[in-house]
Amino acid sequence: MRDTLPLLEKIHFPAIRRAALETLQVNVGYRCNQSCFHCHVNAGPNRTEEMTGDVADLVLEFLRRRKIATLDITGGAPELTRHFRKLVREAGKLGAKVMDRCNLTILAQPGQEDLAEFLASERVEVVASMPCYLESNVDRQRGKGVFDGSIRGLKRLNAVGYGRDPKLVLHLVYNPQGPALPPAQASLEVDYRRVLGEQYGIVFNKLFVLANMPIQRFGTTLVKTGEFDAYLRLLQDAHHDANLDGVMCRNLISVDWRGYVYDCDFNQMLGLPMTLGNRARVHLADLLNDSIEGNPIRVAGHCYGCTAGQGSSCGGALKEAAE
């Protein structure tokens, strides 16, 4: 599933360096109740990788010692990991904002019946995958029945106050269906509010639009269908230098389930670890006391997915976010 790495490493991308660290993004495991076509993690029900208690404790110690503002928890379906709720509770006690990258259908899984209430009680910011407001498009990308399950999950979150209570933030995430740039975030958000509100009574805070990265399942499919080069040209032709200042990797580090550090989640999935000095591989334990501000960020061709058009980050479009 790393078929695209040799191709991406041949593509030049402008050099960028780190700013102050604000967000610790932690991938707690690759197990998921879904297997989505666009998934850059290649997550699924048969994945067994999962963060141990020792690494979870290290994450919390890093938050405490470095006074990190935001813990961004992702997966897989992060809620399936044994230490997910511990991370949420303890990070909140440390004063960090906690974000959960939620696929919505997890809310109906056995053992997760109280998940919505738990997230609300801890005031976790939920960032939920919802790649379209049309059932046919969602089920084509994520599997039959996923749209219906996602709608039920959104209603469950709304019922406990998400999207209504200012303290309970619910954002949705859109991905294109194929090798195309996402539409303008602001106008698409209007459509999401109209359709989801009128047809299902659903409310949310913001819509984030993300470009599909040419890695893992999606990248491999592009290679097999002969569309890889055209998609990379599309991203490169739409690149804007102005987006370089806002890319997420400048203020974020990505940590895998074993505690190893990467400049971003996409690099993690490509097996491109952060480099620091003479160290070819960095563990979170190595950064408890060392600043990485000014450190060069490891880049390759896939990085154009973050700088093309309106830009793309974990927080959605860069240009509209700046506005």
Task: State the gist of this model.
With 323 residues, the protein is an alpha/beta fold. It is built from twelve helices and eight strands.
Blueprint (SSEs and pairs):
Blueprint: H1 5-8, E1 23-27, H2 53-66, E2 70-74, H3 84-93, E3 97-102, H4 115-121, E4 125-129, H5 135-142, H6 146-159, E5 170-174, H7 185-200, E6 206-209, H8 216-225, H9 228-237, E7 252-255, E8 261-262, H10 265-270, H11 304-307, H12 318-322
Parallel strand pairs: 1-2, 1-7, 2-3, 3-4, 4-5, 5-6
Antiparallel strand pairs: 7-8
Helix pairs in contact: 2-3
Question: Please, could you describe this protein's structure?
Answer:
- By secondary structure, the protein is an alpha/beta fold.
- It has one domain: Aldolase class I (TIM Barrel).
- It is 33% helix and 11% strand.
- The chain is built from 12 helices and 8 strands.
- It has an 8-stranded mixed beta sheet with strand order 6-5-4-3-2-1-7-8.
- The protein is globular.
- The model has no long low-confidence stretch (mean pLDDT 91).
Number of strands: 8
Tally of helical runs: 12
The averaged pLDDT comes out at 91
Rg from Cα: 19 Å
Write out the strand line-up for the largest beta sheet, numbering strands in chain order. Answer: 6-5-4-3-2-1-7-8
- Work out the strand percent: 5-15%
The biggest beta sheet, please? 8 strands, mixed
Q: Which architecture does the CATH hierarchy give at level 2? A: Alpha-Beta Barrel
User: What is the total domain count?
Assistant: 1
At the first level of CATH, the class is: Alpha Beta
Q: Spell out the helices and strands N to C.
A: HEHEHEHEHHEHEHHEEHHH
Instruction: Tell me the helix content.
Output: 25-40%
Distance between the termini: 37 Å
Annotated CATH topology = TIM Barrel
Class computed from helices, strands and strand pairing: alpha/beta
CATH homologous superfamily annotation:
Aldolase class I
Low-confidence stretches: none
